[in-house]
Amino acid sequence: MTNKTNTQKKLYIKTWGCQMNVYDSSRMADILRPLGYAQVDEPEDADMMILNTCHIREKATDKVFSEIGRLKIHKDNKEAKGGKMLMAVAGCVAQAEGDFILKRAPVIDMVFGPQTYHELPEMVLKANGNERVVNTEFPSVTKFDSLPLEQQQGPAAFLSIQEGCDKFCTFCVVPYTRGAEFSRPVDKIVEEARMLVDNGAKEITLLGQNVNAYHGTNIDGKTWGLGRLIESVAEIEGLQQIRYTTSHPRDVDEDLIRAHGDVDKLAPFLHLPVQSGSDKILKAMNRKHTADRYREIIADMRKVRPDIVFSSDFIVGFPGETDQDHEDTMQLIRDVVFASAYSFKYSARPGTPAANMAGLVRPDVASKRLTELQTLISDQYLEFNQSCIGTTTQVLFERTGKNKGQLQGRTPFFQAVNATANERLLGEFVNVKITEASAHALVGEVEVV
Ligand code: SAH
Ligand code: SF4
Ligand code: F3S
User: Mean of the per-residue pLDDT values for the chain?
Assistant: First the structure.
């Protein structure tokens, strides 16, 4: 029913930040498609440009302004030719800074936060009438009820099931930029998952800022947790693999652990951010669990799914972190053994409780700790990747690979794999024998059947 005329308008979206933002960008494209916008890869000559921004670490706002300065040329060029380009800032910086962005950057036409994307058609209408738009509401009607069901996603699709965060870790801006926790109802999620599979998805990643805090209502009025939801999604025929991200140790319950044992379609990979291995620092971060509780979860997961591998997030240099606290983190890493991880230097975020805490760690000390931690972890994932050489594993080819004639995908353990393969295998699960491994990627050969 879309209005496909040859006057199609070009939409350029640049995305920073977490998987939620990547997902939001694709949903913005979905909602703008019926208005005649088709997504393009380059900013030149676009009719609309959206910067989907992230506020998680330092200088986020400055970076957005310098990016606006850099990309403004495309708008100027377009206008010089008598055309028009709408320029928008979306995402978490938009939420945090609101109309300050309009004041400081006259080139910007629209500023809107993550909970308002379903209102894009009205905002575009206003902006086209030369009205500058700011929308940072947390509307009472959820955007999920008004976003179109139709989506353009590949074989590995994402499905947002939960949003927002009520945890208020003392270092984090997300509860302020994304708002309170909200879980979508079970039937809406299952319906959307079916639609994605009908449209070619073989794998679905269930998404949420705190995905395992999921507590959605089923049609019988009962509340379901993530474990139960995964079991239900797994019943969809044609769906071959399920993942979820990002989870919090505090919300790992028995149902979720059981799902890892019972649901074959659930990938043997879990991203479970821990941030620190020191109980003192975990407490100051308001994570509300201990390092030993984390070890216990890992052990419970391994009991039901022995081949499962783990990934995590770490922050070094949180206020008050001593050498001993850092050593506790290193010990946790040695104990657990990770298959991948993201690690960051603590960055004070205005408005968060940790920003006022005493005990600042010197930047050079934080850098040294970060290097130490990253060296240990990258040794761990090199070892894991190398242990895969010679094994055959199912890879979902998602895109063309680095070199010509290659396809790229991921193993169930979330390792990136490149393999020489015919393009008709794109979007398929294929048996691949691993032949080479580095810390960050694998090379394999397609097994001939
Ligand atoms: N909800 C997830 C994390 C979301 S933010 C969780 O609770 O684990 C993604 C990661 O960014 C965090 O896990 C943390 O490691 C990092 N991060 C968040 N705020 C930060 C800050 N102020 N400084 C440095 N890293 C931060
Ligand atoms: Fe941020 Fe903590 Fe919420 Fe994760 S759980 S989004 S780190 S406040
Ligand atoms: Fe960044 Fe917002 Fe995600 S701050 S990490 S884009 S929730």
Answer: 94
Peptide bond into 322 cis (omega under 30): no
Buried b (16+ CB within 10 A) or exposed e, 404-432: eebbbbbbbbbbbbbbebeeebbbbbbeb
Q: What residue's CA is closest to ligand 3, atom 7? A: 174
Side-chain-side CA neighbours of 105 within 13 Å: the count stands at: 29
Structure tokens at 264: 């074959």
Whole-number Å distance between alpha carbons of 17 and 20: 8
Q: Kindly give the distance from the C-alpha atom of residue 208 to the centroid of ligand 2, in angstroms, as a whole number.
A: 11
What tokens appear for 344 in the block? Answer: 């960051």
If one counts every other C-beta atom within 10 angstroms of the C-beta of residue 356, the result is 11
- Which pair of tokens denotes residue 122? 């009205």
pLDDT single digits (tens) 116-131: 999 999 999 999 999 9
Residue 197's nearest CA partner among 161, 240, 162, 230 is: 240
**Whose structure tokens read 């797994």?**
234
Report the relative pairing of strands 416-420 and 441-446 from DSSP bridges.
Answer: parallel
Residue 93, sorted as left (phi over 0), alpha (psi -120 to 50) or beta, turns out to be alpha
Which atom of ligand 1 lies at the shortest distance from residue 210's CA? 1
* Residues 210/245, Cβ–Cβ less than 8 Å: no
User: Residue 365 half-sphere exposure, CB side, CA atoms within 13 Å?
Assistant: 14
Separation of first and last alpha carbons in the chain: 42
Of the candidates 115, 105, 228, which has an alpha carbon nearest to the alpha carbon of residue 165? Answer: 115
Whole-number percent of the chain with pLDDT over 90: 91
Please state whether beta strands 223-224 and 216-217 pair in parallel, antiparallel, or not at all (unpaired): antiparallel
* Gap between the Cα atoms of 308 and 310, Å rounded: 7
Over residues 245-288, the pLDDT tens digits come to 999 999 999 999 999 999 999 999 999 999 999 999 999 999 99
Tokens of 160: 């947002």
- Strands 340-345 and 309-316, by their bridges, are parallel
Q: What are the distances in angstroms from CA 355 to CA 199, 219, 316, 384? A: 46, 43, 15, 37
Handedness of CA 187, 190, 194, 196 (dihedral sign): positive
Ligand nearest to the CA of 313: 1
Residues in contact with ligand 2 (CB, 6 Å cut-off): 165, 167-169, 172, 174-175, 209-210, 248
User: How many angstroms separate the alpha carbon of residue 371 from the centre of ligand 1?
Assistant: 18
Residues forming beta bridges with residue 206, ordered by sequence position: 159, 244
**Structure tokens belonging to residue 33:** 């498609």
CB 264 within 8 A of CB 297: no
In DSSP notation, 253-319 reads -HHHHHHHHH-TTB-SEEE---B-S-HHHHHHTT--S-HHHHHHHHHHHHHH-TT-EEEEEEEE--T
